[in-house]
Amino acid sequence: MSSKIKVGILGATGMVGQNYIRLLEGHPWFEVAYVAASAQSAGKKYEEAVSGRWHMNGPIPESVRDFVVCDATDVSAAIHQCSVVFSAVSMDKKAVAALELEYASNGFAVVSNNSAHRFTADVPMIIPEINPEHLDIIPVQRKKRGWSSGLIAVKSNCSIQSYMTPLHALMRKGYEVKRMFVTTLQALSGAGYPGPSALDMIDNIVPFIQGEEEKSENEPLKIFGKIVDGAFVNNSSIKISAHCNRVPVIHGHTACVSVEFAQRNPSLDEIKDIWQNFTSLPQKLSLPFAPLKPIIYRNEPNRPQPQKDRDSDKAMAVTVGRLRACNVFDMRFVGLHHNTVRGAAGGAILSAELLKERGFIK
Fold it and tell me: Do 143 and 168 have their domain in common?
């Protein structure tokens, strides 16, 4: 019998769910033991449920192909099948919030890609290289809700991860960010399948993505915030202005960022040195999904580029480049990451690995 931790995937037939299936194949700690999706897919074998819409490179893993898909809203079906669930269900936000609470109250560790609990006061929103200490809220969360083994932890919106780790690396050295202006160029896969129509995207850019600018401006404040009296308090000292655009790129979110520092400014050479030498707790712990170098700096004047850089270091690294002085603020740069790996399934798997190492997942 396998000694690996049994995990389930809610929303297993969607784009993020398929990435979980692909990325977890052969994982040294976790084993997919349960798949669930909408009522329309329930009762079908997984291979049948994704027939004609398996979007990953390579075939469906044999270990999952014949699994019978369950109804994600039927929590009782997952009991005794797994102890961890990765939540990527596509439902109304209030319904997702209630469903994740129900899973957690039944003892499941819920690691969610959804936004429903990102601003719940006792739920950590984790980027493992930035705020692993935010997992300290889990005992408070459990005590408050009467859970012995259940928990909810969420990952942030995918669009902000192109620049959050580079900013954190500078802030960790004492260079506090005062204001920033960011323009995101977000890939089609971020909209799920089938996403925007070809008529909307070929020879075009769409300068609006529902809710993305609000997430880009608010979520970093919680991630850079602190736990005070058993709840998160946002870092209100940073002001962010965001423009979010959908572009005709399949994978890879790009961000063009201008930053003003609060007091002293690092030199460009110092910034490069900080980025190139940055590591954090996931690297110290040698977590399976942790990139060896969380930040990769490219000196070429025309990098990073989605086609060339999105898959760097298991598609889990943030690639930065075009660092230069800013005529309005202090400095500017371009950041890029793989939105469906680092920004979605891979990032959540890394969070689950950190939860295991901290003893919150048994």
Answer: no
Catalytic position from the list 158, 168, 244, 338 = 158
**313 to 32, 119, 190, 334, 337: CA distances (angstroms):** 23, 30, 20, 18, 11
Known catalytic membership, residue 253: yes
Q: 106 with 63, same domain?
A: yes
Q: 254 in a domain, yes or no?
A: yes
The total number of structural domains that make up the chain: 2
CB 310 within 8 A of CB 252: yes
Q: Do 110 and 171 lie in a common domain? A: no
Q: Which of 168, 253, 337, 338 is catalytic?
A: 253
pTM: 0.97
- Which residue's entry shows tokens 């809710």? 211
CATH no. for residue 9? 3.40.50.720
Answer whether residue 232 is part of any domain.
Answer: yes
Q: Is 158 a catalytic residue?
A: yes
Are 303 and 194 part of one and the same domain?
yes
Length of the chain: 362
pLDDT tens track, the chain, 362 positions: 469 999 999 999 999 999 999 999 999 999 999 999 999 999 999 999 999 999 999 999 999 999 999 999 999 999 999 999 999 999 999 999 999 999 999 999 999 999 999 999 999 999 999 999 999 999 999 999 999 999 999 999 999 999 999 999 999 999 999 999 999 999 999 999 889 999 999 999 999 999 999 999 999 999 999 999 999 999 999 999 999 999 999 999 999 999 999 988 999 999 999 999 999 999 999 999 999 999 999 999 999 999 999 999 999 999 999 999 999 999 999 999 999 999 999 999 999 999 999 999 98
139-to-25, 136, 196, 334 alpha-carbon distances in Å? 31, 7, 41, 38
Provide the residue range defining the domain that includes 200: 159-338
Please tell me whether residues 105 and 128 are part of one structural domain: yes
